[in-house]
Known about the structure:
Order of helices and strands: EEHEHEEEHHHHHHHHHH
CATH architecture of the largest domain: Roll
Structural class: alpha+beta
CATH topology of the largest domain: Ubiquitin-like (UB roll)
Helix content: 55-70%
Amino acid sequence: MEVASGPAAPEPGEIRALKQCLLRRNKSREQHGVAASCLKELRNKACDILAIDKSLAPITLVLAEDGTIVDDDDYFLCLPANTKFVVLAGNEKWTHNSDGGTAWITQESFDRDETDSGAGLKWKNVARQLKEDLSSIILLSEEELQMLIDVPCSELAEELGQSHVAVQGLQNTLQQVLDQREEARQSRQLLELYLRALEKEGGILSKQQESRADLGDERDAVDTGIRESSSEVTPASQILLALKEKPAPELSLSSQDLELVAKEDPKALAVALNWDIKKTEAVQQACNQELSLRLQQPRSMLDLSSLTSDQT
């Protein structure tokens, strides 16, 4: 389907897609191929190619197939390529050449076609396009799909030259395509809402984590102040972690930490470690022994140093 940005005639310098068309005069079989981007351009080219005096207004373009007046750019742009037109000048009336015969259409018919040249005939054009290529269903807009669904089955069957059963199946298929597009649209909308919610929730979680981190820093600062000011200092969380995870925690703790563990109340330490009292006392005893050994080392070094100086 040809697509244009709007029904108005192209502005100067504006590039439009050209539609291939076939032109002939009334009661003539000679056709001329032209390309135009709008009806105004097509009328001008028709007058030049077919040697029509422009003073014989109005210049009317009708479909060679059924005499439908084409006076709307939207309708023109919807027509398939190589559509056949008959050019009428002045008060000429369209005639349909079939096996050399002539069938005249009265002015009343022209008036009726002109009145029906809107939505009433657009569905016929869409139906013709569908008849030429069934795969063009995927190119139809939702408005065009709904248009063909709303057409009475008998009229659409006549236009397509198909049985009522076949056309009913076609309309059911068109309804399914329309429903799938609606479901896809709703799914996209739900996905967009979900992504927005995730983005919003991510921002909330990030703020919560920052608040918890700030609160943790404040608690650590408070705990440090309590340890420094209290006579009974509680071991820090890293000391408790070392006591729980290290097979011989007394070897990995500093002398200051060992002193804190040794001085801690066994019951309070057992609660903090979630241990029984015997295991807690054993660990405290090991820490006390390790602390004693570390305190004896400097003394031994001093004694050895004194002994050496006396001998010299």
